[in-house]
Amino acid sequence: MFFNPNDVSYRHNENYNPAPITCGADCWECSYSWSGPNSFSVSGAVLDLSPLTKSMAGTYTCTARNVKLSQQPLQTKQLLLEVRFGPDFINVTNGKLVYTVDEGTRLHDIKCEADCFPACTYEWTKDGHNFGNSDTLSLDQVQKTSAGNYTCRAINRDMQSRWKEKRVTIYVRYGPYQSSTQLSPSTQNYTKNEGQSLNDIMCSAECYPDCTYTWRKTRQGHTTTVSSTSVLSIGQLHREEAALYTCSAKNPERSSSPSTTIQTLVNVRYGPNTVSLNVTSPYDVLEEKSLIIQCKAECYPGCSYTWVNVTSGLMMNTTGAVMYIGTVNKYMTGDYKCEAKNNDASIYVKAADIVVTINIKEQTFLKFFYIGSHINTTVVTVDELEVGIIFTCTVSGDSAENIKITHHGQILKEEQNASSLKFIHKTVNCYDSGEYKCEVRNRDMNVSSGNVSMFVNCSPRPVRKIQEKFPVPLDAPVTLTFEALAHPEPGPKGFAWYNFRETRWLQILTNEDFQISSLGLETNLTIFSVSQNDYGQYRVTTMNSIGTYNQYFSLLQQEPASPQVRKEDCKDGDTLTIGIVIGTVFLILTIYATSITVLWKRNVSFSKNRSTTFMMKNIGIDRRNELQGQTTYVNMNSSSNDQDVQQRVESKATFEDDPSKTQYTDLDDFSRDKGNNVYAAIKRN
Fold it and tell me: How many angstroms separate the Cα of 281 from the Cα of each of 293, 337, 446, 491?
């Protein structure tokens, strides 16, 4: 078989009109047919494919049959037709032509596709510049420079460089960058005079899309927004415009991106406009006092101050805004001027001043406070029942606003607008002893005061009332305390303790069962553990050079509280020890000053059978008759049958030869008066 033309392959462009092709064979009456791609079929020896389409490309077969000889095998011959075409269209991945991404993120590959024969070649360009020779655009991590227009071109180089292209636009959100944030003008510190104008300041930063801007003003710790644009416009300056201004730039579409800032400081020179003082004029000062007056003005960058004595015309030797005079006198009365100037006087001339009148006045204060005629004496001793004791208070300078004389906080006499004050004790007694105070308050409400002490010679007596009877449990410790009022003080040798036995009083000395401690106006008798023999009547005799006083009280037995023991608290086979804590007996003995401190011992689980040992001294009828001539104050104990407990007269006794003189010790800590009115204290072992 043969073709005419005899070529067996052809390559033509789409839409080309090729010459028909004739199929032939060596036979007598042959029939012909053509078959081809896409179910192509045609009868006859001629194959006419014009005009060509890309779907016609393929292999064509010519089949020849012998019409006369049906048994003759078929003959075939093929030819190949290739049709050049494309690109007719071009596509990109997902058909997306616009991308907006954040700087630093990764953009997936973008692939370009086109239909060509023979196969297309591809080129990527960015903004007209070659960017690659493949069908895929790979940017990986996007930078701000990645933004732009990318064009993919598909080219059929067998068809005289026939091509198609598609453009992809990529937008990159970026910024702002601190390095690109700047001001115009670039000055970041301005200093101008009040009233001058400040040109607008422009803030800029690099962003896509465009940055938004905020100007904030910070003054004296307070921040306010002054502009929502990139421009700061202040205009004419006032002192209130002096502040730190901050421009903040932010990308409006990047919430995760931090804003950038840049600052400029605006200083405004001003002042002083006025000057003020910390005192009012006229200003009065007491003679011999110090003088401090402070001048104050508002200035930037600061004020300097000068003080001048206007009256004398002399410059004051002061530094800064404060005029200080250590000690003033009456010759310093006059007018004083404070002048303030701006520290930048060379380029900003401004000053202001103020005048204050100062009056130096003689000081009012306590001059003398004395008793009787003892002007220079602060301690005076008088006898009880002495009459007409005069206390005198005198004032130096002007009359005082208020003068008063007090004793133990109680006002004895008080006068207003006076230069002196007298108080007269018509008759003094022992209770008038102590410290007296004169207090002077001048018209400036300043107070001066002085103290004098008066001691009244008197025989002993109690300070306050006492309770005569009180119960004490067996085996408990007890301390009997007596405080006297007397002058001179009895001291350790001026107290003696006694216990009434059968028909007489027996003196008690310190031993293993008792302790006596005395000091000043106070004495204590401590029984370490009360036995049955210790219950009964007790007496303390207090003596000074003026007289004596006997105080009586009695100890009564008190039954202890019954202990409670729970069965569950005991274990089988264990020895049961019952700890009895017998509370705290708090007995306040008041009749003028005696108090008793009852101290309970813990863990009292035993009974003591003992005999109380006394060192005894018989004070009998004979001695009592000898000691007549001095008044003795006796606090009667109604429960006592002792005939010796009557109001009587005893002579002055010094106890110098008394065997008990070595028994006295300092007061126990727990029995001291700690400044309270109650002398009973509780102490647990």
Answer: 11, 11, 20, 62
Q: How sure is the predictor about 637, in pLDDT bands with cuts at 50, 70 and 90?
A: very low
Strands across the sheet containing 30-36 = 9-13, 75-84, 58-66, 30-36, 40-43
- Across 100-119, b (16+ Cβ under 10 Å) vs e yields ebebeeebeebbbbbbbbee
| CA separation for the pair 14, 85 (Å, rounded) | 5
Task: State how far the Cα of 310 lies from the Cα of 145, in Å rounded to an integer.
Answer: 76
* Domain range summary for the chain, segments of one domain joined by +: 2-84, 90-173, 178-269, 275-361, 365-459, 463-671
pLDDT of residue 561: 61
State residue 657's pLDDT score. 38
Give the pLDDT of residue 392.
Answer: 96
Query: Distance between CA atoms of 243 and 222, rounded to whole angstroms?
Result: 10
Letter string b/e over residues 435-465, b meaning 16 or more CB atoms within 10 A of that residue's CB: ebbbbbbbeeeeebebebebbbbbbbbbbbe
Q: What's the confidence (pLDDT) of residue 584? A: 30
Evaluated on CA atoms 176, 177, 180, 186, the torsion sign reads positive
Q: Does residue 490 register a pLDDT over 50?
A: yes
Domain at 178-269: CATH code: 2.60.40.10
| C-beta separation of 52 from 26 below 8 A | no
Instruction: Report the distance separating Cα 373 and Cα 154, nearest Å.
Output: 132
Element (H, E) at 72: none
Q: Which residues pair with 167 in a beta bridge?
A: 151
* Close Cβ partners of 127 (under 8 Å, ≥ 6 residues apart): 148, 149
Q: Please, are residues 16 and 160 in contact by the beta-carbon 8 Å criterion?
A: no
Quote the pLDDT of residue 563.
54
Q: Which fold has domain 90-173?
A: Immunoglobulin-like (2.60.40)
pLDDT in tens, 467-484: 778 789 999 999 999 999
Q: Do domains 90-173 and 275-361 have the same CATH topology?
A: yes
Residue 676 has pLDDT above 60, yes or no: no
Residue 360's DSSP bridge partners are 285
Classify 365-459 by CATH class: mainly beta
* CATH number for the segment(s) 2-84: 2.60.40.10
Beta strand extents in 174-286 (DSSP E only)? 182-184, 189-193, 197-198, 201-204, 212-219, 222-227, 231-232, 235-236, 243-250, 260-269, 275-277, 283-286
Give the pairing type, strands 314-315 and 58-66: unpaired
pLDDT tops 70 at residue 672: no
Q: What is the CATH number of domain 463-671?
A: 2.60.40.10
- Higher per-residue confidence, 651 vs 165: 165
Q: Which CATH class is domain 275-361?
A: mainly beta
Judge whether 314 and 308 are in contact, CB under 8 Å.
Answer: yes
Task: Check if the beta carbon of residue 124 is closer than 8 Å to that of residue 111.
Answer: no
Query: Can you give the pLDDT at residue 564?
Result: 53
Which of 361, 451, 453, 446 shows the shortest CA–CA distance to 402?
446
ω into 209 cis (within 30 of 0): yes
126-156 tens-digit pLDDT: 998 999 999 999 988 999 999 999 999 999 9
Decide if pLDDT at 38 tops 50. yes
Give the residue with greater pLDDT, 204 vs 662: 204
Q: What is the pLDDT of residues 526-562, one digit of tens each?
A: 999 999 999 999 999 999 999 999 999 899 998 766 5
Measured distance CA(545)–CA(370) in Å, rounded: 27
Nearest alpha-carbon partner for 352 in 275, 412, 248, 280: 275
